[in-house]
TrEMBL record:
It comes from the Bacteria. This is Isocitrase. Keywords: Lyase. CDD domains: ICL_PEPM. It catalyses: D-threo-isocitrate = glyoxylate + succinate. NCBIfam families: PRK06498.1. GO terms for molecular function: lyase activity.
């Protein structure tokens, strides 16, 4: 017996116990409302989605072709429409997640207005967006199920038993729009206690996976900006522990921690690591510092000195009181960061790179997997990369290495539209198309995401409409570019009243008031023009 049928029978039994005072209660309506409200709390969502992620991680370990994907979203409606589109075109949400980008929270959700990605926005806006996203995803479930219930009632009224059976099976096997969210906690917004408190709020809102980076929280920079400053491993481990304690306190024992390292592009550290014995973790961190060997006679007041193998070393300290690492040590530091994080409670890794290059990523993952064989990545397919130029240059280098004639190309100007129809451009586009598949097979990438794609798509689509509507096209710009496409491509928002919940409200009115219900969806509702 299905959950739907069980709920009908249990409510029918309860109704009989209550006597005539419940005569107006229809058990099937209750079952429908329960189906439309499957998840009662954020913690239920966090547990449900954590189970999904753990299953997906195990499946990836067995077969690297079954990687997962997400797009970053900045509003509940955008996340909802993304999942509706996935279900419409791909028929299943399997292996598709949502990504909550701290960059987009800063740029689009702060009460201060647009901010750079430097942890200056309100920390409460992060769990608020998680809650908002799941509110919209649950509403998508309610709407889609409501349409099925309406069709079921119509089939029953028509006496079409075959249709009734088919629609009932769709209700019984309904796939929710609720999927895992990988949520960005930046560098933790403060000390480990602050990290723990914020992580709890995020988990209570529904987050099953929290991504945290090894930058200094009060000097945090976007991963694709200069001036990044990392912290010693012990500092980062404390925050990993804080997030794990938050998961465990709330009963999400299999919550997922994504440990991000920014060391590839971070040349600075705020402080020296504490070292107790030669070769320990603190000593390994300090070994990457740019230092000068000095004698005791060369010491100045205020100098900070390290002693290694009997030598005195003075780390190079900047006017900002930050210390710099030796040039060219980024990849080696990333490898150490990743191994250390996995040994101290992280589940997945994130290596922030400066370009999308499978072999660069794979080179680091190969080193990590020598120590931890099942290490796997979340990778940022970032809009901060010029994908066209990067891959055309990779294609140029490949053709050159193969002995092809590349004299007709200017490697520094490969973004030029003049190259769009060339063999090189076609090769580059094919490498872009297969980047996720190739990266998952070769470089251990379990999850591919684009951090802020919907920031760009919102700007681009708005530009298209504004250009035409305020120009010579007038209303045709909207009709041709938006509404006609919505109708012909089956975009749910063409019936915007339905999308916002009007039909659900009408059905509830009928549940509550019967024939006396005043409904909005009658013959004069202009939404009827859309069929």
């Amino acid at each position: 017996m299905t959950t739907y049928q069980t709920d009908i029978e249990s409510i029918e039994a309860l109704k009989q116990q209550q006597g005539s005072s419940w005569d107006a209660i229809n058990p099937e309506y209750v079952a429908r409302m329960r189906a439309q409200n499957r998840f009662k709390t954020g913690l239920e969502i966090a547990q449900y989605t954590a189970d999904i992620m753990r299953r997906d991680m195990a499946e990836y370990d067995a077969d690297s072709s079954v990687y997962t994907q997400s797009l970053g979203v900045w509003h509940g409606f955008i996340g909802q429409q993304k999942l509706i589109s996935i279900k419409k075109h791909l028929k299943s949400t399997n292996k598709r997640y949502l990504y909550l980008s701290g960059w987009m929270v800063a740029a689009l959700r702060s009460e201060f207005g647009p901010l750079p990605d430097q942890s200056m926005h309100e920390k409460t806006s992060v769990p608020a967006l998680i809650e908002e996203l799941y509110t919209f995803l649950r509403q998508a479930d309610a709407r889609e199920l409501d349409l099925l219930f309406t069709r079921l009632d119509g089939a029953r009224a028509a006496g079409d038993d075959t249709a009734v059976e088919f629609i009932q099976s769709q209700i019984d096997t309904y796939e929710t729009h609720v999927v895992p969210i990988i949520a960005d906690i930046d560098a933790g917004f403060g000390n480990p206690e602050a990290t723990y408190l914020l992580a709890k709020k995020m988990i209570e809102a529904g987050a099953c996976a929290i991504q945290i980076e090894n930058q200094v929280s009060d000097e945090k920079q976007c991963g694709h900006q200069d001036g990044k400053v990392t912290v010693p491993h012990d500092d980062f481990i404390a925050k990993l522990n804080a997030v794990r304690y938050a998961f465990l306190e709330l009963g999400i024992d299999n919550g997922v921690i994504v440990a991000r390292t920014d060391s590839l592009g971070a040349g600075l550290t705020q402080k020296l690591a504490v070292s107790h014995t030669a070769g320990d973790l603190g000593d390994q961190y300090n070994a990457f510092l740019d230092v000068d060997a000095i004698d005791a006679d060369d010491l100045s007041d205020g100098d900070v000195i390290l002693r290694r193998e009997g030598r005195m070393l003075r780390p190079k300290r900047l006017a900002s009181n930050l210390y710099q690492f030796r040039s060219g040590t980024g990849e080696e530091r990333c490898v150490l960061d990743c191994i250390t994080s996995l040994r101290n409670g992280a589940d997945l890794l994130w290596i922030e790179t400066e370009k999308p290059h499978v072999e660069q990523i794979a080179g680091m993952v190969d080193e990590i997997r020598k120590v931890i064989p099942n290490a796997k990545l979340v990778y940022n397919n970032s809009p901060s990369f010029n994908w066209t130029l990067n891959f055309r240059q990779q294609a140029y280098d490949l053709l050159l290495a193969e002995g092809a004639d590349v004299s007709g190309y200017d490697r520094a100007d490969l973004m030029n539209v003049a190259y769009d129809d060339t063999e090189l451009a076609q090769l580059a586009d094919e490498k872009i198309r297969s980047f996720q598949k190739d990266g998952s097979a070769r470089a251990g990438i379990f999850h591919h995401l684009i951090t802020l794609p919907t920031y760009h798509t919102a700007a681009l689509s708005t530009d298209d409409l504004a250009k035409g509507y305020f120009g010579s096209e007038g209303m045709l710009a909207y009709v041709k570019g938006v509404q006609r496409r919505e109708i012909r491509e089956g975009i749910a928002t063409v019936k915007h009243q339905n999308m916002a919940g009007s039909d659900i409200g009408d059905n509830h009115k009928e549940y509550f008031a019967g024939d006396a219900a005043l409904k909005a969806g009658g013959k004069d509702n202009t939404m009827n023009q859309f069929g």
